[in-house]
Design goal:
Layout: E1 2-11, E2 14-19, E3 23-27, H1 34-46, H2 49-52, E4 61-68, E5 71-75, H3 81-89, H4 95-102, E6 103-104, H5 114-125, H6 130-143, H7 160-183, H8 186-238, H9 242-253, H10 260-290, H11 296-340, H12 348-380, H13 387-402, H14 415-453, H15 458-462, H16 473-512, H17 523-531, E7 536-541, E8 547-551, E9 556-557, H18 564-583, E10 589-593, H19 601-616, E11 620-625, H20 628-637, E12 641-644
């Protein structure tokens, strides 16, 4: 297939339409769009930004027209030249291969990624499988966790070398310790420690159950105490006030001395005494008259004396009468006052008895209140002192404590049982501590083994993580088994990989011998000999895919040992030879951007002759340049048409 037309509607500042003959030079000064034209063509022909290495982010708009075997077609809608190769010729060509053979950018004829490229091309045109074999070999080596060189255990893949040493050393130490433990009968010490621990746990569980039962009983007792305190406070509040009781007691004490009966008896006696004195006075006055005594003094003396007595008795009678009346009024007032303060009594003695009863009740409640208040304050750590405040704080404290109480704890609790359980727990803990002290070094060693085992990546090598707690000798023996699995897995993978890699290397070496046949047809050597005026006579590849040339003297050189001009001539010969082999007799084209930039006039002429011969054989060459001498050489020697570009 050959390029016939490129139409660029827009690619950055480039707007251009060009038609190409079999030999065509696109000439223009710098800044005329040649580089943009090459980029646009590469992106349209390959669809690969990396190959084009564009300087503009946008995709080119337009089309590329080609012909092949008499048919003309345009690449559009994302179709590429490589798609056409695959469809028409069943010929696959990668963008990188297309760029390395058929396109020269910025005057640089060198082949990119040279050794790998020659290997791929040789695989394609000669039919060797070195690349595939080496890929498989590399994967085999990686699977065995080996270094690329020497096939030793690598630190790059799962830290195989370090992991192998770690697992091997740890396994040796574990096995030695298991032998020592067997000799010292550490199993028996472990069993004794385990038994003591079991007894301690059982006793502690019993202590916990009994303490839960005790806590429940204490809680319930505190609830009862709070209830009793509340009732006492409420009942005491309903009793007569103690101040009122004191007042009534004082009023009772202030009542007239003597009982009401005695006052009545005294009143009767005084009344009788008055009557008797009056009667005696009458008799005393009548007797002298009866005796004939007429002297007034003598007659009046007797009645006067008894009159005095009668007056005294009358006064005493009246005093007693008044005392009885006052006592009655006071007694009624006391009973009435008692009724006001809540005492139901009919007379002062009953009031006095009721006061005594109420005082006793006050004393009883005071004792209950004081006792319960102190209990609640001490058990619930309450700062309040007033009983009502204590009740309020106790309510909150008990509510908070309620969540901590196990009301299902139905264990029968006694202090004796709790004390016994605590003693048994302490004794078992002491025995366990003694045995643990004996096993302390043993435990530390187990912990060190467990810590070291944490550095081994079991899952990476055996497929399973180490789900194991190294707490006893049995677990340590299990750890030894798992370490053997790791060591065996690493060594087995490495041995198998070494054996497979050895076979693959032999296969690769056999295939590599075919590398030297890539230029065996002599096409590259013939072109290189002509463009160097017979100074060089051969071009070839070493078995490690390195390009070499042979001088007429027989000396072999690499590209780096050649001058820039000669090296460009070499890569021109290589590109022409590889292009012919890849296309297998089909027509193709070369797109060259100032490929002969470093050539002197003689080299330029010889290289132009090679391109002319290439065109004569049916190929197409499109050459872009800003050099008049290159333009003229190709026009004269290769018969190229010339299109001149104007500055953008």
């Amino acid at each position: 297939m050959k390029l016939r037309e490129v139409h660029v509607d827009r690619y950055g500042p480039l707007r251009e339409t060009l038609q190409f003959g079999d030999a065509h030079v696109v000439y223009g000064p710098n800044e005329s769009g040649k580089t943009l034209l090459v980029e646009s063509l590469l992106r349209s022909l390959t669809g690969d930004r990396r190959v084009a290495q564009p300087r503009i982010d946008e995709s080119p708009e337009g089309y590329v027209a080609l012909d092949g075997e008499g048919d003309r077609f345009e690449l559009a809608n994302g179709e590429t030249l490589l798609d056409r190769y695959a469809e028409r010729y069943n010929f696959e060509l990668t963008p990188a291969e297309f760029r390395n053979v058929f396109v020269v950018r910025d005057g640089d004829l060198r082949v990119l990624d040279e050794q790998a490229f020659y290997r791929r091309v040789t695989d394609r045109v000669v039919g060797i499988w070195t690349g595939d074999i080496e890929t498989v070999r590399d994967r085999v080596v990686e699977r065995g966790r080996l270094t690329p060189e020497g096939w030793e255990l690598s630190t790059q893949h799962d830290d195989a070398a370090e992991q192998h040493d770690l697992a091997t050393d740890l396994l040796a130490d574990v096995e030695a310790y298991l032998d020592r433990a067997d000799a010292e009968d550490l199993d028996a010490a472990e069993r004794a420690c385990y038994e003591a621990a079991r007894e301690r746990r059982e006793a502690e569980a019993e202590v916990e159950a009994l303490e839960a039962a005790k806590a429940r009983e204490d809680y319930e007792q505190l609830v009862k105490t709070k209830g009793s305190l509340e009732r006492s406070l409420d009942e005491r509040a309903e009793l007569p006030d103690e101040g009122d009781l004191d007042e009534l007691s004082e009023r009772l004490d202030d009542l007239a001395t003597g009982s009401e009966d005695e006052l009545q008896r005294r009143k009767t006696w005084y009344g009788r005494a008055t009557l008797a004195a009056l009667a005696a006075g009458v008799v005393a006055g009548a007797v002298p008259l009866g005796l004939g005594i007429r002297e007034p003094q003598l007659v009046a003396a007797g009645p006067a004396a008894f009159g005095v007595v009668a007056l005294v008795a009358l006064a005493a009678y009246r005093s007693a009468s008044n005392a009885v009346v006052r006592l009655g009024r006071d007694r009624e007032a006391v009973v009435e006052r008692a009724s006001e303060v809540g005492i139901d009594a009919y007379d002062p003695p009953a009031v006095r008895g009721a006061i005594a009863d109420y005082r006793e009740e006050h004393d009883n409640h005071a004792e209950v209140i004081q006792g319960n208040t102190e209990v609640l304050r001490q058990w619930l750590d309450i700062d309040a002192e007033a009983p009502r405040d204590v009740v309020a704080e106790a309510e909150d404290a008990l509510e908070a404590r309620r969540a901590e109480i196990d009301f299902d704890a139905d264990r029968e609790f006694t202090e004796e049982k709790l004390e016994d359980a605590r003693e048994r727990a302490e004794a078992a803990a002491e025995r366990e501590g003694e045995r643990r002290e004996t096993l302390r070094d043993h435990r530390r060693q187990l912990e060190r083994f467990a810590e070291r085992a944490g550095g081994v990546r079991f899952e990476a090598f055996t497929g399973e993580p180490l789900d194991l707690t190294v707490a006893n000798l049995g677990a340590l023996a299990d750890l030894a088994d798992r370490l053997r699995e790791v060591v065996d897995a690493i060594e087995t993978d490495a041995d198998v990989s070494r054996a497979a890699a050895t076979v693959l290397d032999r296969m690769a070496a056999s295939e590599t011998e075919k590398m030297t046949t890539l230029f065996a047809d002599g096409e590259a050597a013939d072109v290189f000999r002509r463009v160097t005026d017979d100074r060089y006579v051969d071009v070839g590849l070493t078995d490690d895919s390195r390009l070499t040339v042979e001088l007429a003297s027989g000396e072999r050189l690499g590209p780096a040992e050649l001058s820039r001009g000669t090296r460009d001539q070499l890569y021109l010969a290589v590109r022409v030879a590889l292009g012919r082999r890849l296309m297998e007799g089909r027509d193709g084209f070369f797109l060259m951007d100032d490929a002969f930039l470093s050539a002197d006039p003689q080299r330029l002429e010889r290289q132009a002759e090679v391109l002319g011969e290439l065109v004569d054989s049916g190929w197409q060459v499109v050459y872009l340049t800003c050099k008049p001498d290159a333009r003229d050489a190709l026009a004269e020697t290769a018969g190229a048409d010339v299109t001149e570009l104007s500055p953008l």
